[in-house]
Amino acid sequence: MDLYIQIIVVACLTGMTSLLAHRSAAVFHDGIRPILPQLIEGYMNRREAGSIAFGLSIGFVASVGISFTLKTGLLNAWLLFLPTDILGVLAINSLMAFGLGAIWGVLILTCLLPVNQLLTALPVDVLGSLGELSSPVVSAFALFPLVAIFYQFGWKQSLVAAVVVLMTRVVVVRYFHILTLNPSKSLLAW
């Protein structure tokens, strides 16, 4: 019964996000937002907008979405909502947008466990390597405040902030073991 409720909730959620993207009301990917007015005003057709949405999103889906989900066993927004943006922009009508989004959610939810079991059955640790794919992206998120400091206050303050961030990271990793992997190597535990 729990699985059915999860499937219904995820299908409704991904269906709605796809429908919202189709109607140009809301998208998950910030990079797609500027092209939506062109789509609404007729300067761009759905195929062109879908191609742009695919090009902007597929890297995040492959590097962060899939690898993080397979490594942890948890669904994440990149894997659920970036593809629904693409499907919603490409769909020719609202019903198709909702249906494609719902199908995507059901596929992700039902195929996650078998794919994870298949990859853990292999003699080589594939999941560890997949988890490492998302490490540079997650680490790069720490650079966004440094870029903001650079634009706001200049390169000297940005350099000082970068040194503070790097030293803090070294100290935390070296001396504080706050997060450790469970024996199953699938989830972080305190």
How does this model look, in words?
- It comes from Escherichia coli.
- InterPro entries: Uncharacterised_YhfT.
- The chain crosses the membrane at residues 6-28, 49-70, 90-113, 133-153, 159-176.
- It is built from 8 helices and 2 strands; from the N terminus they run H-H-H-H-H-H-H-H-E-E.
- It has 190 residues and is mostly helical.
- The protein has 2 domains: 2-121, no CATH class; 142-189, no CATH class.
- Strands 1-2 form a two-stranded antiparallel ribbon.
- Strand 1 (180-181) and strand 2 form a beta hairpin.
- Helix 3 (46-72) packs antiparallel against helix 4.
- The longest helix is centred in the middle third of the chain and has 28 residues, at 94-121.
- The two termini are 30 Å apart.
- Mean pLDDT is 84; it is low at 181-190.
What is this entry, summarized?
This is Inner membrane protein. With 190 residues, the chain is mainly alpha-helical. The chain has helices at residues 2-22, 36-41, 46-72, 77-90, 94-121, 126-140, 143-153, 155-175, and strands at residues 180-181, 188-189.
What percentage of amino acids are in beta strands? under 5%
- How would you sum up the major sheet? 2 strands, antiparallel
The tally of helices reads 8
Radius of gyration, whole Å: 20 Å
Order of helices and strands: HHHHHHHHEE
- Tell me the distance between the termini: 30 Å
How confident overall, as mean pLDDT? 84
Tally of DSSP β-strands: 2
How would the global form be characterised?
flat
- Structural class comes to mainly alpha
Percent helix, as a range, is over 70%
Domain module count: 2
Strand neighbour order, sheet with most strands: 1-2
Low-pLDDT ranges: 181-190
